[in-house]
Structures are given as structure tokens and as C-alpha cells.
């Protein structure tokens, strides 16, 4: 049996070909066109293990941790034992997974809790990808295995108080070299995991050549301060921080040797932007699951509201959004596996899927009426979390401009 509630409307009896061949990986109800069957059998089994972990370990505690704005850090290492962190890198790929399968794992995680997906994704995605893309062979061998095993937790420090969308040119954090030591000064904002991370990838401009470099700042380094951002109303489990760097000394050996400009940083963002598309899909999927369950149980006027035309219209639109978004996510991941993915491919996916996510969580909230604003119904948390996911890894506007540049050949950035 599936772990989701409700049944997607069927125009005809289900055919055997629509089901996954592996008994351990039955299709989720909202996988209307059976995209999961594109995964190899071992990938379907991996997705099933992640789904089971999220349902067993995370779902029962997610609302409570979200309400308290605390992070279940104790679940990081058990999640890492599933073997999905680092599956993209040769040093840590114990069970190779395609980009489609890696995306599916992110979707399964976000479907239960988008905050937990962010927590995992910052370390296993942004931090590990920075080292995987920009690290020397020695750095990759040193850092990737413990990060993949959950022995270390990573963070990624790019965004600044005065540099968000314009980080390519507007980065203010500086790095000045003195022999074999670099001195970092500046500030970062919205840095997930930073209050407890063992290593934070800090991006700074080299004062000698004005190019962006990457640095591995270890926990406890003098001059590094991370302060939790309070009063958030989205992704409350994620421990975002303001970082201050005051004459932070980093050895040349901890500078990412393969990063020489922001163009190199963009390679990392292209990979992780795909992950945000899958996370957006999962966030919407979680709201859909909860709404279907609610409308098939809630009674008004002597019948369940799932039998009313207006409710069915909302649910059909939500399912269409999920299906279209899943198709885009799958194809962009396939292009990544083929080595043909571009910045514009990733940007279009992020822009489209997050927009459809925002519409979908709103439709699901509406379908649940006033009860939809409570955590108990299951749509309020993804409804709120969607706002943060809609914004990070590049706003819709910035991603649209990346796509627009690909269409016209003209850059419209300020």
C-alpha cells in the first residue's frame, strides 16, 4: 500500500503497466503518469526507503519542531545512512543514483517536510557540491566522505545582508592573502545550518584580483560568529543565521582550489537549483496529499466535500500542476545526466515549478477551508514553507531573466 492518503481520479481502470515493477516502490498517488517507473529498480527501492524513513521518523515530529523553530539535528546521521548523500560524487557514491533518482529523493523528503529537506540539502547539496565541483582531489577525499556519512554537517555562505540577487557582482565579503593564510572579513545572511555546522563554505572576493573564491571555514575558527535569525514564519525548522567574519584566518589548504571566479560558483548553483525544483514539487505534493485526505473525509451538507464540483476543480488543477512540474523536473535531471544541462534549463525549471507550487499550496489550503490554517490539517506548514522555497536559489524574476537571455541573446540584468 502507498503511504499517501486519497486516490487520484481515474478515468479508466488502472493498467498493470502503470505500476512500478518493484514491490518495494509502489507509486505515489499523485504520480499520475507513473514517472517513477523511469527509475531503475534499485533507485525505486532507494526512494521507497527514503519515503519510509520520512514517514516513520520525521512526520510524527515535524509539526512540533516547526512550531518550536527547532531542528531535529539528531536525525541527520540516520538519514545519511540511507546512502543518498554524496551519490553524485565518485568518492562517496556507494550506490550510484541518476540525477532523476537524486531529485526524486529530494521530492520524497520535501513531501513530508520541506524544512528537513532544506536542512539535508544545505549540507548534502550546497556544501558537498561546492567541494565536489571546486575542491582539489585532496580536498574532495578529505571532506566528502565524512559529509556523506553524516559525521560532519556543512553549510553554504553566499547570500549577504546587502547582496542577494546581485551576488555575482555585489559580493562584499573580502579575502586577502598573506602568504599561506587568507583573512576574511564581511557578513553573510540566511545561511542555513550555520549555527551548528562543522564546516561552512564561505564565498568572498579576492582583494587582489576582485574574483570570487571559496573557503572552508571550520567550526570554532576565531572571528567567525553565527547568530540564529528569529521570528521566521517559513521553514521554521531550518536554523538560518547571520554570520559575521572579523579577520577570520583560513589556510590556503582550505581554499577551494578549483574556484577562480563566480562563473565557477554558478556551476554549483546550476546543480543545486535543480534540487530546489524537486523540493518545490515535494512541498506542493505534501499539501496535495493532505488536502485529498481532508476533502475525502470532511462532511458538509450531508456528504463529503470531495464530491463537490468546486473542490474537484481545485484538486484537478493541483494534480495538473504536480504532473507538469514533475515532467519538467525529470527532463532537466535527464539533461544533467547527459551532460547537456544549461543554466537556462535549470532556471526555467526553478521558475516554473516554484510558481506552480505556490498556486498548488494555495488551492489545497482553500480546499481545507478555515481548518487549513492549522498544523493539524497538514496544509498550513507546506503553505508557509512554500514562500521561502519560492524565493531562495534565485527569485522567479532572476531566473526568468536567465531564460530570457537564452531566448533573445540579450542580457536584461541591471
From TrEMBL:
Q: Which cofactor does it need?
A: FAD
Q: Where is the Acyl-CoA oxidase/dehydrogenase middle domain?
A: 155-248
One Pfam entry name: Acyl-CoA_dh_M
- Every copy of the Acyl-CoA dehydrogenase/oxidase C-terminal domain together lies at 265-407
The alphabetical list of record keywords is: FAD, Flavoprotein, Oxidoreductase
Q: Where is the Acyl-CoA dehydrogenase/oxidase N-terminal domain?
A: 42-151
Q: Which InterPro entries match?
A: ACX4-like (IPR045008), Acyl-CoA_DH_CS (IPR006089), Acyl-CoA_Oxase/DH_mid-dom (IPR006091), Acyl-CoA_Oxase/DH_mid-dom_sf (IPR046373), AcylCo_DH-like_C (IPR036250), AcylCo_DH/oxidase_C (IPR009075), AcylCoA_DH/ox_N (IPR013786), AcylCoA_DH/ox_N_sf (IPR037069)
- The segments labelled Disordered in the record are 1-21
Q: List compositional bias (Low complexity) regions by residue number.
A: 8-20
PANTHER family with a match to the protein in the record: ACYL-COA DEHYDROGENASE (PTHR43188:SF1), ACYL-COENZYME A OXIDASE (PTHR43188)
Which family does the entry's similarity section mention?
Belongs to the acyl-CoA dehydrogenase family.
The protein depicted here goes by the name Acyl-CoA dehydrogenase family protein
The species is: Myceligenerans crystallogenes
Its taxonomic path starts at: Bacteria, Bacillati, Actinomycetota, Actinomycetes, Micrococcales
